[in-house]
Amino acid sequence: METANLSPSQKQALEPGAEKIILDCDTGHDDAVAILLAVGNPKIDLLGVTTIGGNAELEKVTYNSRAVLQEAQVFDVPVHKGCSRPLLTPLRPAAEVHGETGLDGVELPDPKDVPLQEGHAVNWIIDTIMNSDPKTITLVATGPLTNIAMAARLEPAIVERVKRVVLMGGGVYEANSTPVAEFNIWTDPDAAKIVFELPWDVTMIGLDTTHQALCLPEIQQRIEENGGEVGQFMSGLMDFFRLAYQENQDFQNPPVHDPCTIAYIIDPSVVKTRRCAVDVENQPGLTFGETVADMRGPADPTSRTQVTLDLDFEKFWDIVEDAIVRINEKKQESA
Ligand code: PIR
Ligand code: CA
To answer: Is residue 1 part of a domain?
Structure first.
């Protein structure tokens, strides 16, 4: 493919007041859909993608992130590489659900037009937030929280300056990595504890919600039929993810966790939220990596942290499908 005729931005024309976000991810199958949703919806202004070792090693998830942007033909979103491992605990990649590459099952395009930026993701996050107007940037995390915790420790002023943090992780009643812990939090519970303790607004979109974001065959078929090349790409990802979830997690259909964060920003009514205190167990033992949400009594409207429990399934998939269709249309126009 020629690179000479690329239009400067393949991002969707943004709506006025589009939400500025930084997406910090460990690109596996569902992170890939989160990236597509972020570039394909006009209400989202994706300032950059930062990467974190998680589903697979840092080099792999960084390559995957670039390849997904290449697939979407989005060449103006910078990608920065972050931390390669959790603060204290070892990295234990989730190869059983995402494969060795972190994004097994599809042929990835060569990300030749999506260069890796110089500089560490943590520094880039800090600089981007400090050089923007206060309370204008939402930090979205769909992997372990190491980069976010590191950024807050290196430049504490970001905590007041960001608008909020929206993360996929944890669960109130659901778990996957252990009987009580979810993978992103369990991978780096120390970082997660830091993120939940800091005085910023945190929305935890946990497994209670994301286990409802099931890619049913009819949903996948719709996306494949209407989404052209990009729909095919997503469908390939879902084929692998479904098999992995059938073999390892006793699910019939794969839960597509990470785009729930972006969908919530696009349309908050896609989930119901409940304000309550959330803390993280980071001491060794049975409950290592558990998110402890206080669900007693009435919700506490003054709580900085909130959790989600449900998902509007139809609305969620309409939002995802719409983004895939738009990306594909734009891709065809520029081909
Ligand atoms: C999904 C993940 C890790 C392990 C399993 N079994 C399933 C990844 C997803 O990318 C998502 O961000 C989160 N971690 C769900 O636990
Ligand atoms: Ca993820």
So the answer is: no
Indicate if ligand 1 lies below 6 Å from the C-beta of 184: yes
Asked if residues 91 and 53 have their Cβ atoms less than 8 Å apart, the reply is yes
In this structure, are strands 164-168 and 202-205 parallel, antiparallel, or unpaired? parallel
Q: Which residue, among 253, 229, 189, 180, has the nearest Cα to 333 in the 3D structure?
A: 229
pTM confidence score: 0.97
The answer as to whether 7 is a domain residue is no
Helix H segments across 142-212?
Answer: 146-154, 158-161, 183-187, 189-197, 207-210
Q: What is the number of structural domains in the chain?
A: 1
Burial degree of 132 (CB within 10 A; 0-12, 13-18, 19+): middle
Chain-centroid distance, C-alpha 4: 31
Condensed to tens digits (0 to 9), the pLDDT of residues 275-311 reads 999 999 999 999 999 999 999 989 999 999 999 999 9
Single-letter amino acid, residue 44: I
Does the CB atom of residue 142 touch ligand 1 within 6 A? yes
CA angle centred on 264, ends 55 and 83, rounded to 5°? 30
**Tens-digit pLDDT profile for residues 97-148:** 999 999 999 999 999 999 999 999 999 999 999 999 999 999 999 999 999 9
CA of 184 to the centre of ligand 1 (A): 7
Q: What is the CATH number of the domain that holds 201?
A: 3.90.245.10
Give the domain range for residue 163: 19-334
Which pLDDT does position 109 carry in this prediction?
A: 98
